[in-house]
Amino acid sequence: MSDIAAIKNQLIDEMWLPIAERAGRTFRPHLKKNKKMKVLTLTNDKNFREVIELVRHKITRKDLIYGWHKARATAFRLEVEGKMATVFPGMTYEDSLETETHEITNEFPFDIINLDFSSQNPERINGRIEREIRSLEKTLKVQTELDVDGMALIYTTLLDSANISTTKIKANSDGINVSGWPGLRFNGIPATISQEDKKTRCLKDILEQFINKYSCENVGAIESSAKNLSNGSGTICSLGVILKRV
C-alpha cells in the first residue's frame, strides 16, 4: 500500500467517518436504519475504503455515492468494482466546475462532499493548490445556490515543496462576486507561503472565510489533520467541517 493510501486509512478512521456520522445525526435524525446521505468523493482504485465504510455504517447507500477520478482508466476500474452507483472520469474536478455543461453540475447538491485531491495523483507543480482552492469555493457556491440546509465538507491535499500564492488565491476568489462580501483578507500572511505549517494555517483561514462568504456556519469547529509522508517529500493535510446555512 502506498504512503498516501495508508494515510488515507488513518484519516477515514480518525476524521472523515466521524464527521460523516455526525452529519447524519445532524441532518437526518429521523432516519434510523440508513441516513441516505448523497455523497461525492474524489477517490481512486488503490483505496476507496471511505465508500465501503460509509455504506457499512449506514450513512449512505451504494446508489447515492458518486465517485470521481480524473484518469479514465482509473475511473473505469472503480466502476468495475461496483461499490458506487456513478463514477465520473476523464477530467480533473477543478476543470469540471469551470464549465456549466459538465454532468456533475446536474447532480448537486450533495450531503457529504469529500474533495480528496491527494487521491487524484497530484502533480508537484506551482499553482496546483490554488486551482484546488478555486474548485473548493465553486463547490460551496453551487451548493449554496441550491439552498441546501447544510453539508459535510472535507478537503484533503498534498502539501509539497511548491509555494502557495495567496495573491492568486485572493484574485481567484474576489473574481467570484457575492453581494456584500469585501473580499479575502490575509492579515499577517505573506503573498507567498513556503513553510508547511503556515500552509496548513492558511488553508484553514481560507476555508473559514469561504464559510462566511457563503452564509454558512460551523456545526462545531473545523477539524484538521496533517500527516507527513514517510519519505519526507510532503504532508497530507485534511480539513473537515459540518456546515449549516445561516
Structural account:
- With 246 residues, the protein is of the alpha/beta class.
- 37% of the residues lie in helices and 20% in strands.
- The protein has seven helices and ten strands.
- Strand 4 (112-116), helix 5 and strand 5 (150-159) form a beta-alpha-beta unit.
- Helix 1 packs parallel to helix 2 and helix 5 (128-145) runs parallel beside helix 6 (166-174).
Q: Care to count the β-strands?
A: 10
Radius of gyration from the alpha-carbon trace, in angstroms: 17 Å
| Structure classification | alpha/beta
How do the SSEs run, as a string of H and E? Answer: HEHEHEHEHEEHEHEEE
**Low-pLDDT stretches:** none
Percent range of helical residues:
25-40%
**Main sheet record:** 8 strands, mixed
Tell me the number of helical segments per DSSP (H or I, 4 or more residues long): 7
Separation of termini? Answer: 42 Å
- Amount of beta strand: 15-25%
Mean pLDDT: 95
Sum up the overall morphology in one term.
Answer: globular
How would the blueprint of this fold be written?
Elements: H1 3-27, E1 39-42, H2 49-56, E2 65-68, H3 72-81, E3 86-88, H4 93-96, E4 112-116, H5 128-145, E5 150-159, E6 164-165, H6 166-174, E7 192-193, H7 196-213, E8 216-218, E9 223-228, E10 235-245
Parallel strand pairs: 1-2, 1-4, 2-3, 4-5
Antiparallel strand pairs: 5-10, 6-7, 8-10, 9-10
Helix pairs in contact: 1-2, 5-6
Feature tags:
single chain; alpha/beta; two-stranded antiparallel sheet; 37% helix; globular
